[in-house]
Amino acid sequence: MTDLTRARLLAVARGDEPADLVVRGARVFSAFTREWLAGDVAVADGRFAGVGEYAGREVLDAGGSMLVPGFVDAHVHIESSMLTPERFAEVLLARGVTTVVADPHELANVVGARGVHWLLDVAADLPLRVFVMAPSCVPASPFESPRGPVALEEIEAILERPGALGVAEMMNFPGLIAGDASELAKAAARGATHVDGHAPGVSGRALNAYLAAGVSSDHESTTYAEALEKRRAGAWVLIREASNARNLEALLPLVREHGPERTAFCTDDREADVLLAEGSIDSMVRAAVEAGLPIEDALVLSTANAAAAHGLRDLGAIAPGYRADFALHPDASFRPSRVFRDGRLVARDGVAVPVPIGERPEWLTGTMHAAPVEPSRFAIPATGAPVRVIELVPDQLLTGAAVEAPRVEDGLAVADPERDLAKLAVVERHHATGRIGRGFVRGFGLRAGAFASTVSHDAHNVIVAGVDDADMSVAVRRLGELGGGIVVVRGGAVLAELALPVAGLMTDRPADEVAAALDALREAARTLGVTVRAPFMALSFLGLSVIPSLKITDRGLIDVDRFEVVPLEVGY
Fold it and tell me: Which end of the chain, N or C, is less packed with Cβ atoms under 10 Å?
């Protein structure tokens, strides 16, 4: 804030000068006392001057609406929406979300550190306030194959940029806990304000070591006991409600029994159709209130606490000197009639002011470099030994690990729809190595065909599930032609598809078109027998080698608990 701006803000706060905008007749939420205040809200030069009795050049009658700070998403991967930042901003602003803290490690895995710099460049012109955490784990582990690693010096170069805050989630928690020198160096990166965590199931002395390394938060808790232990140890507990990782219901007792301190809301990964149908942080506020949490606590978790978790000292509250990011909510459905960022209207009645889209560099749209994959590449020789099977856990990123005798035909282990055993493969797509990891998965209900995606956390190689090798091959080939995306195939024919040409992760198409395409893809998947609510999000996380228990990458099956590559066949 310049001296001139501060002088004018003080003059407006004193009542010596008129405000740019005065909102009158609202119930004003105080995030600091969890009260509802009466009074005019004065805005000058994009900041709140005060709550009281004020005159303004423009006066807006709130008609008794709730005036609350703009919602803040404490941890999100924009790429998971499959929308480019401009389209993502339009969706969130319409729902009263004015700030996000983004970890762009999906982009970084595909195009390196320059993808993060590109996001920061785009974010500078967005009406949505986007802060960036510098990706710490590219690759997420030694078992994944991204375009290339993001080195410490690149992390520190990102942290020199305005809008970059700290070090993003430290996913290699085994390495950090063990005191690995390279992981410790990232956690101590020059220019970082703080370090975000990723510690699924970590407890006891291992948790103590993880937090002692400098980590300040975690968004991976799935049980009350896990979240309570982390909060007792001083970590910010970011309660997550993603498309395929729904932890809100299980973790709300933490807030009911111990208050809202050191907790905040985040969405982590939500696809475009989920954002349109349910919402973003606004949907978490609604769900929390419906579950019995006081409105005031839900609002603190989605505003002041989310900002405080990242040291954003002038966001998340309606108070003198704070950024004038706010929304008017006519009722507790939290569907805002007007949304403001820096005191300027950015959305009205569920529609955001359109956000212009700039040109995309060629390096961002030409990222598919997979070697040709014939059906024979998916064949799995059988020796008679049982095989390891990845088991889906409904609405969670965690997976189980089972051992089954495979169905064998002509000396090959094949899919067995009667036992809900589908083939699963990851095809390296960044350097045309031809490397493929093969395995089996249970839980999709797949009975025919195949479906595949280039959204495959975190390295974003091609991941494909199927019961027919030829259809798996067709799916992978079609993704190459699309420049990345999602496809569903049966009998050699593509039933549905969504092109994601921006890094194989995102598209500039409007959110409603993307949602319609996802609906068509899910319907096509249902015709193959798929019963999972979010099949493509579930598929995308089967390649993430830092979420227990069993995962798959292009290098093979990964036992995350033991943190090592294991053979498909047991006993070998």
Answer: C
Q: What residues does each domain of the chain span?
A: 70-317, 364-566
Strand partners, 340: 326, 345
**How far is Cα 156 from Cα 12, in angstroms, rounded to an integer?**
40
Tokens of 218: 């975690």
Rounded to whole angstroms, how far apart are CA atoms 65 and 28?
A: 9
Q: How far is CA 146 from the centre of its chain?
A: 18
Torsion of CA 166, 167, 169, 174, to 10 degrees: -150
Whether residue 11 contacts residue 20, with contact meaning beta carbons closer than 8 Å, is answered with no
15-56 pLDDT, tens digit per residue, is 999 999 999 999 999 999 999 999 999 999 999 999 999 999
The span from the CA of 557 to the CA of 423, in Å, is 13
Distance CA 478, CA 72 (A): 38
pLDDT of residue 135: 98
3 state SS of 277: helix
How far is 494 from 449, CA to CA, in rounded Å?
Answer: 10
User: Rounded to whole angstroms, what are the CA distances from 351 to 70, 197, 241, 284, 347?
Assistant: 16, 34, 23, 20, 5
The CA distance from 149 to 112, in Å, is: 7
Which residues, at least 6 apart from 382, have a Cβ–Cβ distance to it below 8 Å? Answer: 406, 408, 411, 412, 413
User: Tell me, what amino acid is at 363?
Assistant: W
The neighbour count for residue 45, using CB atoms within 10 Å, is 18
C-alpha to C-alpha distance for 283 and 269, rounded to whole angstroms: 14
The token pair that represents 156 in the structure block? 């520190």
Long-range interactions of 330-335: CB distance < 8 A, separation 24+: 330/63, 330/64, 330/65, 330/66, 331/66, 332/66, 332/286, 332/289, 332/295, 333/286, 334/96, 334/282, 334/285, 334/286, 335/95, 335/282
pLDDT digits (tens, 9 = 90+) for 323-380: 999 999 999 999 999 999 999 999 999 999 999 998 999 999 999 999 999 999 999 9
Residues 346/352, Cβ–Cβ less than 8 Å: yes
Global pTM exceeds 0.70: yes
CATH fold label, 70-317? TIM Barrel (3.20.20)
Strand partners, 502: 506
What sign for the dihedral angle of Cα 563, 565, 568, 572? negative
- Neighbour-count burial of 237, counting CB atoms closer than 10 A to its CB (0-12 exposed, 13-18 middle, 19+ buried): buried
